[in-house]
Write a structure and sequence with these properties.
3 helices
């Protein structure tokens, strides 16, 4: 079944690990040109890009904190300039705050 993702320009926030990385891998495997954002883990981001490129996929990584509006806007501009458009945005980045109830 054709997913319709081939040739689409995609941005995924929080794409270097966990669910975000799985989304990056799935969309790129379907032929999308994927740019993912990550905040700190350069090693995980580099590993994700290298694995994707080794498989012949279009994957780019951009280090930016999604709380930085100007940084995010700059990434969007770069992706739009490189790809000519942005077709899909996956807002996956999140913050975990584990606290005891009491």
């Amino acid at each position: 079944m054709d997913s319709g993702l081939a040739g689409k320009a995609v941005i995924v926030t929080g794409g270097s690990r966990g669910i975000g990385r799985a989304i990056v891998e799935l969309f790129s495997a379907e032929g999308a040109d994927v740019t993912f954002l990550f905040r700190e883990n350069i090693a995980a981001a580099a590993e994700g890009v290298a694995a994707g490129r080794a498989a012949g996929r279009q994957i780019m990584a951009e280090q930016v904190d999604v709380r930085d509006l100007q940084g995010c806007a700059a990434v969007v501009e770069r992706v739009a300039e490189r790809c000519g458009r942005i077709d899909v945005l996956i807002n996956n980045a999140g913050l975990v705050r584990d606290n005891l109830l009491g």
